[in-house]
Amino acid sequence: MSKNWMLRGRNFPGKVLLSRKADSSSNVRGNSSESRSSDEDGHSFSSGAGRNRDLQDINGNELGSSSSAGSPGESSSREASADAPRPGSGGRATDTARVARFKKELAASTVNLDALRELSWSGVPADMRPMIWRLLLGYSPSNTDRREMVLSMKRQEYVEDIAQFFDIPDEDRTEDEIRTVRQIAVDIPRTVPDVTFFHQPTIQTSLERILNIWAVRHPASGYVQGINDLATPFLVVFLSEHFEGEMETWDLSKLSPEKLTQVEADSYWCLSKLLDRIQDHYTFAQPGIQRLVFKLKELVRRIDEPVARHVEEQGLDFLQFAFRWFNCLLIREVPFSLVSRLWDTYLAEGDAFPEYLVYACASFLLTWTDQLQQLDFQEMVLFLQHLPTKRWTHQELEMVLSRAFMWRVMFDRSPSHLNSG
Q: Which residues pair with 158 in a beta bridge?
């Protein structure tokens, strides 16, 4: 196609602006180079579906030229450009300015959660992330006067839950609860298996308590495999309040039992708040996930029909690869070092998170549109099970998130695009 579009990130959380790029036979090669990435075996691959886009990350760093899947249409693109918020004359804010804005919001006697979500969409400063995640999930009150009292009460409630639901003999458990205890014991060693930090006995014990208590207190769904992975970002973020540096260097033996219990409690309550938004993902037959997989299939068909057609012709069902993506919220598909940044956007989405997740998964899948069209069924299954993301940095993740936002803006303006034809 002759129309190329330039995607430029702006300092408005998640708001991407589209501006038409002048057609030129040399505009692709005229840039420094075509952006390419490499998988762990050193094989290069292009990102996207052959349309150049220049992208900046949330800090204003140039991400280079990256191709991406096509847009639903020119008119939708123009509407997205017209309606997306525009920055002031200063362009993108600096890191210092963004941090100052976060500090200003958090210093208010009552935090403006809408403003905090806008800021957080594009990433949260690591040292503020524990406080902000508690606020975004509604676990911590926005009113500063009530915050410590409420957190203290909820943490004490968790301690009482340990005594009531966990530190009990099997004789006091139901048959279902015994089966759940055994299943969790099997799943915990498999939790984020590539990250050795989660192999530590202290972490595994914390996970065991969190998951068992959650299962007892939520009998409508109970424990489902995959929920174990969802607890891990919370544990790491709330532990980061007590340690510095990379998590692999943290010595958990230096953390008092009281502090560890607080970390557990905060992780438990935040996990509960997150799962409240997607509870039908984990009820019987997991209808919420099946619904999102169907929406993903339809969305991919609308955005990149050749890929959708090739996947269908090869007999590959989207459930065969996308079920895990939705079940674990992409935790297993990207390096764990990027998960906290990914979840900043998830939590900033609030109740719209499930909808955005569909677009994020579409953007993630269509990163490899060119490769997918060259693979047969077996090759595609293996490729999607072991995606070449081990060397991904924040740059690749920002591309996925921004592209997802762009597509959502387009389809929100043209909802008929998602009607089954």
A: none
Burial class (CB in 10 A: 0-12, 13-18, 19+), 360: buried
Least confident of 183-187, 219-223, 288-292, 383-387: 219-223
Please write the tens of the pLDDT for every residue from 229-239: 999 999 999 99
Helix runs in 304-350, H state only: 305-313, 319-327, 339-349
Instruction: Give SS3 for 17.
Output: strand
Backbone angle region of 185, left / alpha / beta, with phi > 0 → left and psi within -120 to 50 → alpha: alpha
What are the pLDDT digits (tens) for 187-214?
999 999 999 999 999 999 999 999 999 9
The rounded distance, in Å, linking the Cα atoms of 340 and 329 is: 12
CA 57 to chain centre: 16
pTM of the model: 0.79
- Does the pLDDT of residue 14 top 50, yes or no? no
Take residue 264 and report the two structure tokens written for it: 């557990």
Residues 6+ apart with CB under 8 A from 189: 199, 204
Closest of 367, 220, 245 to residue 303, by C-alpha? 367
pLDDT beyond 80 at 68: no
Nearest alpha carbon to residue 367 among 387, 351, 350:
387
| DSSP H or E segment with residue 63 | strand 62-68
